[in-house]
Design brief:
257 residues
Length: 257
């Protein structure tokens, strides 16, 4: 969204330019009418000059009135630089996401940024396992139809929760390094508990991905034979029959020597 303050001053400049322009036009028509009318008296051309002058001066008056009325309204306060930067960032992200492949590229950048924040942490290994499992599930997602489709939504919610948990583990781990001695045992215990929850969550996520792969595999094995094999077999039989018929026709129509 555009800055309200900038939009206010743009409109103010437009009104000022419009008022000045119509003032100049009105003064020009009025001067022309004042100079040309005395030479030949009042006629149809002089009425046109006078009408143009009057109309231009009236428009100029309205524009000046609009300018004074709008200038009496206080200008919006200056925008907070942090809010302006956030809005600019949101516009850039929206522009990138609208481009082909932009959404997946942004997701990849976010994953790498999150992984970089966890460097040296005990949560890094769980993050990497979660990344691999998530990439596998993304490849399986288009084939998870029917009852399997809800698993993709559940997995997305679980993945976001596990990534947040990984950052919690890293934050507590960093706090342990400079915490006072009397608080270190409690933080160490909390870090151990969070790490255990992260590991259990990643294992559960990996099991979900394995179940999704089994679903896709079994869904493709229903009927024993893939439909494409049946189509290819039918096409082969048809071509073989046509070839046999052509060979027999050629034999019966060849003249004896």
């Amino acid at each position: 969204m555009a800055d309200e303050r900038a939009r206010y001053f743009r409109r103010l400049r437009r009104l000022r330019r419009s008022a000045r322009r119509w003032s100049v036009v009105g003064a020009g028509f009025a001067g022309a009418a004042a100079v040309l009318t005395p030479y030949a008296g009042l006629g149809l051309p002089d009425a046109a000059w006078a009408a143009a002058a009057g109309g231009s001066l009236a428009l100029a008056g309205w524009r000046w009135a609009d300018l004074r009325r709008f200038a009496a309204v206080p200008a919006p306060p200056p925008q907070d630089p942090a809010i302006a930067a956030e809005r600019t960032r949101a516009r850039l992200i929206a522009a990138v996401e609208s481009a082909p492949g932009g959404r997946s590229a942004l997701a990849e950048v976010r994953r790498h940024r999150g992984r970089f924040a966890l460097r040296g942490s005990a949560a890094a290994a769980g993050w990497d396992r979660l990344d691999r499992a998530s990439a596998t599930l993304t490849g399986l997602a288009p084939r998870l139809t029917g009852m399997g489709g809800s698993a993709v939504l559940d997995a997305q919610v679980a993945e976001d929760s596990l990534r947040d948990l990984a950052h919690r583990v890293s934050g507590v781990e960093k706090a342990v390094r400079f915490a006072p001695p009397e608080t270190k045992p409690g933080l160490t215990e909390a870090h151990r508990d969070l790490s255990r929850q992260l590991d259990e969550g990643v294992v559960a996520y990996e099991r979900l991905v394995a179940a999704a792969a089994a679903y896709v595999a079994e869904d493709g094995r229903i009927g024993g034979t893939h439909p494409s094999v049946s189509h290819l077999t039918d096409a082969s039989d048809l071509l073989r029959g046509v070839a046999s018929g052509l060979a027999e026709l050629r034999t019966t129509t060849t003249p004896a020597v």
